[in-house]
Design a protein that fits this description.
With 360 residues, the protein is of the alpha/beta class. The chain has a domain of 248 residues: TIM Barrel (Alpha-Beta Barrel), CATH 3.20.20. The chain is built from 15 helices and nine strands. Strands 8-1-9 form a three-stranded parallel beta sheet, covered by helices on one side. The protein has a three-stranded parallel beta sheet with strand order 2-3-4, covered by helices on one side. Strands 5-6-7 form a three-stranded parallel beta sheet. α5 packs parallel to α7.
């Protein structure tokens, strides 16, 4: 594939042609891509990569629910508008009856998975989490995608149990897979500034590697548009790509933009231009990850639909419930019928999937 429509930059053409020649884009080349203004050209290139990886005539989505089992958190991340201190009157731990009702509603709507995450609660020990998992599995036939790497590292420290053993205990109790939350940007410069009490970049990667080595699949994520540089976005991609080379344990990559309202960071809201450019570069760079997910939760329906032409092959979740982004002042909602319409309107068939991208 050539890019003759590109207005004359040889380096850009050569970089965008690399995926068609089974060559990797280097970190230096990836960083340079952020300097170019030719968004459409990068979108065409990313769409070409996506279509080679996914020549099928359909694009996918999943029905699930994001259940936050507690909003009490000791991390105090500057980008988070959701957490509460333990003494706060609005702090909660979800009652089991409410949790079960949420799962029942998810199943009634055709969901086969719950995404369960919470704050770094200072007093809940492992018995709470293992009993929670076992009780869910005893009542429901549902996939539990839960406990991001910062949570797992917190469990390890609080219970003085090695991190790999924490994963084994949770897996034995019913945990099926681990979400990529808490990655933000995988550089310690960023993390020290916006989330100094959360796990380090290497610890996040170590959790994922251990999970993969124990036979568990996970997702990889990135939250961008706060204090990071574009070079740090590429560094983030590179770390994900290197770990995937070792383990092949990531099922998908999901990137979304930081939402500044009600947080401690006074950033301008990142626009859809930068989102689509970052999405396209992710698809070009992450050559060993099969699936790239659109972020309608932060970008809305139309940009999410456009994402299917910028490298994404999946529209993500119907997100029956979402609380963290909503706390930052953004509240897009989308039901199954609208997601299917958007996929169909983009020229594909809409197909429901599970976490492993098997059609259901």
């Amino acid at each position: 594939m050539t890019y003759d429509v590109c207005p004359g930059d040889k380096n850009l053409k050569e970089t965008l042609s690399k995926p068609t020649q089974n060559k990797r884009i280097t970190a230096e080349e990836g960083s340079r891509l952020f300097d170019y203004k030719e968004l459409l050209i990068m979108g065409i290139a990313a769409d070409g990569v996506c279509r080679r990886k996914h020549p099928e005539d359909y694009r996918t989505y999943i029905i699930d629910r994001n259940i936050n089992y507690t909003n009490i958190c000791t991390s105090g991340c500057k980008f988070c508008a959701f957490y509460k201190n333990i003494e706060h009157s609005d702090g909660y731990i979800i009652p089991k009856e409410e949790l079960y009702k949420k799962i029942e509603e998810t199943i009634e709507l055709g969901g086969r998975q719950i995404l369960m995450q919470g704050g770094l609660h200072p007093t809940l020990k492992m018995d709470f989490y293992t009993e929670l998992l076992r009780s869910i599995k005893a009542k429901f036939d549902i996939h539990i995608h839960a406990f991001s790497p910062p949570e797992i590292m917190h469990f390890s420290l609080l219970n003085t149990i090695p991190m790999p053993e924490i994963i084994r205990i949770l897996k034995d109790a019913g945990l099926d897979s681990i979400p990529g939350g808490g990655a933000e940007i995988l550089t310690d410069r960023c993390r020290q500034l916006i989330s100094p009490n959360k796990c380090s970049a290497q610890e996040w990667l170590n959790v994922m590697q251990s999970a993969h080595e124990q036979g568990m699949k996970t997702t990889a994520t990135m939250m961008f548009g706060h204090i990071e540089t574009t070079d740090e976005r590429i560094e983030h991609f590179e770390k994900i790509r290197q770990l995937q080379d070792k383990t092949n344990g990531f099922t998908a990559f999901i990137a979304w933009t930081f939402q500044p309202k009600n947080t401690q960071l006074e950033n301008a809201l990142l626009g859809s231009y930068d989102y689509l450019k970052t999405l396209a570069i992710a698809r070009l760079y992450l050559d060993n990850i099969m699936n790239i997910q659109a972020s309608w939760v932060t970008q809305g329906a139309k940009i999410a639909q456009l994402s299917l032409k910028f490298g994404a092959n999946d529209m993500g979740s119907t997100m029956i419930e979402e609380n963290v982004v909503k706390a930052a002042g953004v509240s897009y909602t989308m039901e199954k019928e609208e997601i299917e319409f958007l996929i169909n309107d983009a020229g594909f068939l809409a197909k429901q999937r599970d976490l492993y991208y098997n059609l259901v």
